[in-house]
Amino acid sequence: MTEKNSxxxxxxxxxxxxxxxxxxxxxxxxxxxxxxxxxxxxxVPDAEYDRLLRELQDIEGARPExxxxxxxxxxxxxxxxxxxxNVTHEMPMLSLDNAMNATEFADxxxxxxxxxxxxxxxxxxxxxxxxxxxVSLLYQDGVLIRAATRGDGETGExxxxxxxxxxxxxxRLSGDYPQRVEIRGEVYMPLAGFEAxxxxxxxxxxxVFANPRNAAAGSLRQLDSxxxxxxxxxxxxxxxxxxxxxxxxxxxLSDIFQQIHSWGIKINPELxxxxxxxxxxxxxxxxxxxxxxxxxxxDGTVFKVNNLALQQRLGxxxxxxxxxxxxxxxxxxxxxxxxxxxxxxxxxxxxxxxxRLKPVKVAGVVVSNATLHNADExxxxxxxxxxxVVIRRAGDVIPQLVSVVxxxxxxxxxxxxxxxxxxxxxxxxxxxxxxxxxxxxxxLICSAQRKEAIKHFVSRKALDxxxxxxxxxxQLVEQQLIDSVDDLFHLTLEQLAGLERMAEKSAQxxxxxxxxxxxxxxxxFLYALGIREVGxxxxxxxxxxxxxxxxxxxxxxxxxxxxxxVGDIVASHIVNFFAEPHNRxxxxxxxxxxxxxxxxxxxxxxxxxxxxxxxxxxxxTLASMSRDQAKDYLQQLGAKVSGSVSKKTxxxxxxxxAGSKLTKAQQLEVxxxxxxxxxxxxxxxxxxxx
Length: 690
Fold this sequence. Notes:
- By secondary structure, the protein is of the alpha+beta class.
- The chain folds into five domains: 3-76, Helix Hairpins; 98-328, 2-Layer Sandwich (D-amino Acid Aminotransferase, Chain A, domain 1); 333-408, CATH 2.40.50.140; 446-603, 5' to 3' exonuclease, C-terminal subdomain (DNA polymerase, domain 1, Orthogonal Bundle), CATH 1.10.150; 615-684, 3-Layer(aba) Sandwich (Rossmann fold), CATH 3.40.50.
- It is 36% helix and 19% strand.
- The strands form seven sheets. A five-stranded mixed sheet has the order 2-13-10-3-9.
- Helix 1 (3-12) runs antiparallel to helix 2 and helix 17 packs across helix 18 (536-546).
- It catalyses: NAD(+) + (deoxyribonucleotide)n-3'-hydroxyl + 5'-phospho-(deoxyribonucleotide)m = (deoxyribonucleotide)n+m + AMP + beta-nicotinamide D-nucleotide.
């Protein structure tokens, strides 16, 4: 019988002893944790793990005396502490001497040979130097009883509750282990988790971490371990501290690492043994090459003499062992001066502030620019022109300005002023309340947005110019044959046929497609203009409501808000777009080139219709019909159907799984009709429905 089947059988049997069941669940969950976080080889789905964990939580909730220190339920966090207790390390947690270049590392190797009075090769264990926080884990009879920070090497802080929450730290060791053993290692935050955490924090307006090292250290020092439990931390061992005399350790450090791994503790997969100085140097170089492709940050390589007897002969000096060294990589963080800030315009009109820096070498590369993201980030950092700042570079990521050294701020430091007009095309810059990104409103004429604007203009739902694909548009722009969308209609056969992979017949087909696209509809033309958040539905509603382009261009915000699906933000986008003289000029040039559509007075609304003048919103899943059908029925009754709830909404039709629109309707005290009430409304007014 499989483990899973035996668990299910036990769960179904009323005769099973609750205490035995709890232990069975603990053993299974600890095994699954080991398979998932240490072996990277999960054997059950997450849902099965969650089911078993909930069962164990229920048992321990009903029978608290069955809760044990190694229970997987202890990983969810404990009651917040008022302060951390101090821990005195039985064996000091020493630091390592550093080698900053190849010469210093070679000198270290030569010292080993001299102190051992042996000119032969010295075997070294090589491992990445993780950029995190050093931690000591003490196990008694295989159970984690204490975790502590390194502190000053002699005294650290008791962070047991926090470390218990780290998924790959076993609360009970596996296999054959000492009666008492201290496992030392690094707690770090993997890069994927770090980026995800910061993005979530930025979106919520919270504090972001400067780097993964700070993230790990800050997470471990939370007095509320439930906060730590939500942080994506991992632990990796780099050695042992105290070990009880009852256990015979192997003779080499490399074998000790394998022993640690057999207990269910993670060791670094890059760990290897170098048999000579040349092999050690090659490991350092190879790790440096792959440094930025690793899923975690490292700041160097640690080399330790492999033979434990030789370690004892070499001994210690001051607060560091003679038999180990950290060979550091070039720093990914440096200080420099912020000399100026420029503002760049992205392909979608986003305005990005770029810091111009006094050049500084970071991680082996000279950096003179760094991103500042947006106005909110500038405000969060509190940075000014002239400040001394900390710059960070990791891999291919654009260098970032991560903090300001305030005590070095000069008297003549000046504020960074965000522009009100686009630095490329001089159009107004728009920033919608609640959005972090400011954008240029000159979508049709801004050269920074040119390619994207043209690609959108000819797309299938817009003017639908067959044969005019992305690569062809790229060529036309790069060879300066077109500057804006109106130039498309002045292209010649000779110009098109002269492009790469364009025969005369293909070129003529494109010209024919452009000619055909001139006959369009007002809705398609509005959509083709690329006004922010004006999709096909909104474009159709605008065309139906106003009937004429000039009326839309002249409409004020209040008039636009009367259109179905147009809210405050969309209305602002429309007003801002048509306020730009450049955009109006392009529209006029398109019309001069022959782009045209039928215009007519909009159909007057039947004032006698039962729901004339009413605005409705539909949300959720209706049991009796689709939302499109419901919309059609409401429009037959004369109602306007909007996509968002506002004070102007008369009623909301809410089906199953109605979300935020229902909440907002309730807050605004808007009438809510459920499926039955909506069906009764249709029946009342004689609407035939299936």
